[in-house]
Amino acid sequence: MNLTIKNIPDEVYQILKRTAAQRGRSLNAEAIQALADAAEEAARRKRMRESRAALERAVAKLPAMSSSVPLIRADRRGR
Q1: What's the DSSP call for residue 45?
Q2: 35 CB-side CA count, 13 A
Q3: SS3 state at 11
Q4: What is the pTM of this model?
Q5: How far is CA 23 from the centre of its chain?
Q6: CA-closest candidate to residue 28, choices 58, 1, 48, 67
């Protein structure tokens, strides 16, 4: 698939170009890797949000916990 990107800020272009040279990649390969990394990070963040929401739903279904203070005091008196 082809993609044309216009109006790239000069600073972004220079960083991408420099990084590509340091990694021995073409500018095109470095741009593809940067996009792939960003897409994976977005997917990871989405999974994290979904996991957190699932955890919060599971916690909400748990029965309310009572205070453990009476149990601790009873245990201490029993010694």
Answers
A1: H
A2: 8
A3: helix
A4: 0.68
A5: 25
A6: 1
Q: Please report which helix (H) or strand (E) contains residue 69, including its range.
A: helix 69-77
Residue bearing tokens 């949000």? 49
Q: Any idea what the Cα angle at residue 12 is, between residues 6 and 15, rounded to 5°?
A: 135
Instruction: List Cα–Cα distances, 20 to 16, 34, 39, in angstroms.
Output: 6, 10, 19
- Intra-chain end-to-end CA distance of the chain, in Å: 74
pLDDT band at 70 (very low <50, low <70, confident <90, very high): confident
Pair of tokens at residue 71: 């149990």
In contact, 37 and 48? CB cutoff 8 Å: no
Query: Distance between CA atoms of 53 and 55, rounded to whole angstroms?
Result: 5
